[in-house]
Amino acid sequence: MSVYATLGAIDFDKSNAFYDAALATIGWSKHKEFPGWRAYSEGGKGEGFILWVCKPFNGEQASAGNGSMVGFMAQSRAEVDAFYEAAMSNSGTDEGAPGLRPHYGPNWYSAYMRDPAGNKVAVVYDG
User: Fold this and answer.
1) Structural domain includes residue 63
2) Strand 93-100, strand 69-73: pairing
3) What is the dihedral of CA 47, 70, 13, 39, to 10 degrees?
């Protein structure tokens, strides 16, 4: 198995709609699914970094980690914009609209949002 991260889902269907739409804008898609779990990867190939969206093992309500964030790389500013718009249109909440963040670097263009469960997500183009 590749390196991976898991993000808890409070409403599995709503979280999957969020990630299906937002990740599609940067060429990611679902590559595996079973009850309560869905895996996403670049090109849906199941290679490289994998994101799992799942219900918590302990059956308790999912909660977002304080200070935790998953960042995805985009190939252009337009992809950052599209990711953000898809996220906002699918129950995401704004944590920083697309724009330059020169304190990270002169070309760092990024957006920050929370998924339906409150997990923080970033999308970045550094070019």
Assistant:
1) no
2) unpaired
3) 10
* Model confidence, pTM: 0.91
Residue 102 neighbours by CB distance under 10 Å: 10
Residue tagged 């409403």 (tokens): 11
- Tokens 């409070």 correspond to 10
**Structure-token pair, residue 72:** 């995805």
For 57-116, what is each residue's pLDDT tens digit?
A: 888 888 888 889 999 999 999 999 999 999 999 999 999 999 999 999 999 999 999 999
Residue 8, amino acid:
G
Encoded tokens for 10: 């409070």
Q: What stretch of H or E contains 28? A: strand 28-34
Angle between the 12-24 and 77-88 helix axes, to the nearest 10 degrees? 160
Q: List the domain range (segments joined by +) for residue 96.
A: 4-57+68-126
